[in-house]
Amino acid sequence: MVSAIVLCRGDVNIRQCRACVNNVAQKLVHSCPNKKEAFGGYDECMLQYSGRSILGTTSNLPLLYMWDDAFASKPEEFNQELKKLMDVLRGVAAYGDPLRKYATGRAIDRNYQTIYALVQCTPDLSPQDCYDCLTNAYGAMATCPCNGNRGSRQIGSRCNFRYERACFFN
Description:
Layout: E1 3-8, H1 14-31, E2 38-41, E3 45-50, E4 63-67, H2 75-95, E5 102-108, E6 114-121, H3 127-139, E7 152-156, E8 159-164
Antiparallel strand pairs: 1-3, 2-3, 4-7, 5-6, 6-8, 7-8
């Protein structure tokens, strides 16, 4: 038995999605030969496969972190506004469109720094599980070396988020 989950970012068209998934699949097979479980992704998609059933599970592990090396000016204020934005987007993704579980938005902090953010869950998660996954994922930022940076992303097997100072989504 093989179980797999593929998730393309909500703003990616079908052609980009297919190309991304094919690239990830090839890379995983090459990097993880003879492995019964693997997880990988790029900016536009992620892929996880396993020799056991993974559909309906809520574990967001493993996690991939990437971040911008530059720090936000006044990181406390930046993080405060980022948290407000993430709280709104989390609710929209979890309780909005049941097939996409995706939301994007932007905020401006008191120093006129614009923050663009994206959140997404796999569609098989319940609204509450999606909400909890994003809550836990964002909560893990407190211990991430990326805390206070002006851009970061966390790609998990069930949910992910990204924020940047420049717009990165369609």
